[in-house]
Amino acid sequence: MSEQTISEQLFERLCKENNIQLSRIEASIIPGKKEPDYEIETSLGKVLVEVKQFDPNPEELKLQKQLEDRGWTDVFGGEPGAKVRLKIQSAGKQLKSRGADSVPSMVVLYNNVPISRRGTDPYEIKTAMYGMEKIDLSIASDISTGTSVKERGFGPKRKMTPSSNTSISAVAALYSGLDQQLFMYIFHNIYAAMPLNIHSFQGEKIKHYAIADKVLGQFQKWQEIGG
User: Domain limits of the chain?
Assistant: First the structure.
């Protein structure tokens, strides 16, 4: 078995602290086949879990050194949700190979990049799952009257659709606070073939969220469920 990542160690600790029973899935002996990391046993049945970790790339390492050396960094950013989409794509294949179409499954993300929260920010996860946010404008025939907002909603680059990644029931973000306490936000996939029951993962520092219903002219936000 390969050496555990920080994210796997922390996820196991979170489960232990919240009395969640889990077992490690052994690596497949079939060349090229990748298995998910864990199988969770609950009173409601089995849940498959794949843990993904964001490690610093060369640019982020450079920025971290700038912060340590001079107390500030060059400007940096990136496309919202881009890093998350890659993790969802990779995890989806692993979960599906284990039968995630017939049991609930979850991707757990952990950010091991001190300089940034990219990847586990709820907005990043929302845009990765459901698309980049966009504003549709209405242009008046008389240009002097200007433009007005016609609609706000999700646009391109979404990973969750009625026919894509339906084997993933939820995407979760695992956080470690300054006091070393662990907490996790679970964001449910409305298109999941096997939805995750919120009672499968319960704990003082575990929260569940679903995307709010569409309201004309407004962006959809995460809303807590079962709280």
Answer: 6-127+160-225
